[in-house]
Amino acid sequence: MAKRKISKQQFGFIAILWVLLVAFILKNAVINSYTILMIIMSGAIVFIPIYKNMRK
């Protein structure tokens, strides 16, 4: 299966969804080191593949 480059609009949509999810979590969850670690890890899981895709 050929890899397609994602467009800037797709990147923006994914980023907005991730920010909304993080805002929802920060609003409703107990903020501790585990929560912060999970937010950082989710950001890495979302944005590292996108960065690699856009770099090529």
Give a quick set of tags describing it:
56 residues, 79% helix
Description:
With 56 residues, the protein is mainly α. The chain has a domain at 30-56. It contains two helices and no strands. Helix 1 (8-28) runs antiparallel to helix 2. The longest helix is centred in the last third of the chain and has 23 residues, at 33-55. It is elongated, with a radius of gyration of 13 Å. The model has no long low-confidence stretch (mean pLDDT 90).
What do the pLDDT scores average to? 90
Low-confidence stretches: none
Structural class by secondary-structure content: mainly alpha
Computed CA radius of gyration, to the nearest angstrom: 13 Å
Report the strand count.
0
Question: What is the chains' assembly state?
Answer: single chain
Largest sheet: none
Percent helix, as a range, is: over 70%
First-last Cα distance: 17 Å
Large-scale geometry: elongated
